[in-house]
Amino acid sequence: MSKGVLTVISGFSGAGKGTLMKRLTREYDNYALSVSMTTRAPREGERDGIEYFFVDTETFQERIRQGRMLEYACYCGNYYGTPRDYVQQMLEAGKDVILEIEIQGALQIRELVPDCLLLFVTPPGAAELKRRLEGRGTETPEVIARRLARAAEESEGIEAYDYIVINDDLEECVRQIHSMVQNARYTPARQETLIKEIREELSEFAKGAE
Ligand code: 5GP
Hints:
The chain is of the alpha/beta class. The protein contains eight helices and nine strands. It has helices at residues 17-27, 57-65, 84-92, 103-112, 126-136, 141-155, 170-184, 192-209, and strands spanning 6-11, 31-33, 36-38, 52-54, 69-75, 78-83, 96-100, 117-122, 163-166.
């Protein structure tokens, strides 16, 4: 078990995860946001090493072979993955690490780190999702259609997550996510040392009472 909480945030493309994460890491100190690696082309304004590490397919596959990806998935024809080192270092340093990744990756993380927290962010409804995707103005109608079809598939996997976060009011959402991460510190799986100590002390008391 690591010192920091590992949180996965998934959600339909256009659910507003990026904005939420920026706000969360700005408002609270203890978060470290993992920067993923991808083979998709940068959107306008995206910078290498900030939004993503942009690489070609060959480089990505090499990283997989070297075991340097904590998880990875193919999404709408491109590879996306989480570089392992940064996440491990930050968790060891006690940071709460956030991975903003899709569902195949989320399920891999749950296998690897069973005490992680899985959050699913959604707009209040499907019509709002479509409106946000179109409003972003960065994708072609074909890409939007592909992402909506993908959202329909992803909606089938929501039950795998621990909590749903409805992204209606940004500030409220940020507060909710922060309190979910804080609460995750107090699951029995993350309090093994405390539980062990209490049990030992209680058994000493019980002996004294015999
Ligand atoms: P976009 O192209 O819109 O930036 O991202 C497309 C999808 O890939 C989003 O659902 C995003 O959460 C997901 N994604 C981004 N980085 C990773 C990653 O490292 N691993 C996985 N599995 N999914 C990722």
